[in-house]
Amino acid sequence: MTTTVKTEQSNNHYWHSCKPLLWLIALGAMALTPTLYAAELPTSTPVPGGVAVIALKLSGAPTPQVRYRQRQVMVRAGKKGWYAVVGIPLSAKTGSHKLQVSQGEVRYPISFSVRAKSYEEQHITIKDKRKVNPNKLDMTRITRERKQIRAAFRAWSKPLDTEQSHSLNFELPVSGRLSSPFGLRRFFNEQARKPHSGLDIAAAKGTPIRAPAAGRVVETGHFFFNGNSVFIDHGHGLITMYCHMDSIGVKVGQELAPGESIGTIGNTGRATGPHLHWSVSLNDARVDPALFLSRQQRNQLSNSLNTKTN
Ligand SMILES: [Zn+2]
């Protein structure tokens, strides 16, 4: 998939004088054709809540289309042709899973294996009992909000047309202490609830939250459980969500550069203290946000889990 330029030696003077020009043409073609970027792909972690990176054994145009569980999947150029970058939901069963691949007239399925991963239990006490057992009126609101949240996670768009927007490497949206990792099997007031579909970073109220990569704001609002929230669409089914914010500083449709502030840390919604709940969604599957961080940031974050600095 990488663009190669002929580099062998030649005695032909004309060829030598053309070389810089050929390089320029090649670079220009790369800039105009986003799919030609050999993306830095995340490490393949085919587990529930992980990201499977699967070689499609195809190269050339057009970009293959891939579907998984009825949803379109991100396809990226890599060292050996096209790869599917597949989000696996926490609810996925272990064993064989199937992708439907097509490129032009060619159609075929690819199987891949999802292996087991065990996540720890977490028991949380919430003082506001309505946030654990909502009343009838709350339930009407929750049902409406679920549809709104689902629609935001199912956005599909082209990434913004800049080189940075093609990166799958995120910066941490806020520096703070990891107060709750991704995937924990949760009990609120000793009642089993859905597993933790994001990670929590505790920081002082009012600390700015920053876009981890380029993207476009697709939804904002105040939600019953999630409090003040922002959704950013990074393109090709990659959506990030920020919850429990004190203030929201962006509007729907706004384009964001990496590192741009989107609002501040708070404890709105179902929260025991000021923190950011950060979710990353790929093809409508919530996956571990840490998979998109550099190894250094990942280590830094997991080392902060048991420290009590704030
Ligand atoms: Zn959380």
Helix-strand blueprint:
Layout (H helix, E strand, L loop, with lengths): L12 H20 L18 E5 L9 E4 L2 E2 L1 E5 L2 E7 L7 E9 L2 E9 L6 E4 L11 H18 L23 E4 L4 E4 L2 E2 L6 E4 L5 E3 L4 E9 L3 E7 L4 E8 L1 E2 L6 E2 L4 E4 L10 E8 L2 E3 L7 H9 L7
Bound molecules: zinc ion.
Q: Could you give a short description of this structure?
A:
By secondary structure, the protein is α+β, with helices and mostly antiparallel strands. The protein has three helices and 21 strands.
Strand content: 25-35%
| CATH arch. level architecture of the largest domain | Distorted Sandwich
Name of the level-1 CATH class of the largest domain:
Mainly Beta
Give start-end ranges of low-pLDDT stretches: 1-22, 24-37
What name goes with the CATH superfamily of the largest domain? Glucose Permease (Domain IIA)
Task: Report the order of strands and helices.
Answer: HEEEEEEEEHEEEEEEEEEEEEEH
Helical stretch tally: 3
Identify the quaternary structure here.
single chain
Q: What is the residue-mean pLDDT, rounded to a whole number?
A: 86
Can you summarize the main beta sheet? 8 strands, antiparallel
Query: What global shape is seen?
Result: globular
Total of domains: 3
Ligands bound, unique: zinc ion
- CATH-derived topology of the largest domain: Glucose Permease (Domain IIA)
Radius of gyration from CA coordinates: 22 Å
Question: How many beta-strand elements?
Answer: 21
Helix content: 10-25%
What does this structure look like?
The strands form five sheets. Strands 9, 12, 14, 15, 16, 18, 20 and 21 form an eight-stranded antiparallel beta sheet that branches. A four-stranded antiparallel beta sheet has the order 3-2-6-7, with no helix packed on it. Strands 1-5-4 form a three-stranded antiparallel beta sheet, with no helix packed on it. By secondary structure, it is an alpha+beta fold. Mean pLDDT is 86; it is low at 1-22 and 24-37. The N and C termini lie far apart (47 Å). The protein has helices spanning 13-32, 136-153, 295-303, and strands at residues 51-55, 65-68, 71-72, 74-78, 81-87, 95-103, 106-114, 121-124, 177-180, 185-188, 191-192, 199-202, 208-210, 215-223, 227-233, 238-245, 247-248, 255-256, 261-264, 275-282, 285-287. It is built from three helices and 21 strands. β15 (227-233) and β16 (238-245) form a beta hairpin. It folds into three domains: 1-29, no CATH class; 51-114, Immunoglobulin-like; 121-303, Glucose Permease (Domain IIA). The structure holds zinc ion (ZN). Zinc ion (ZN) binds next to loops.
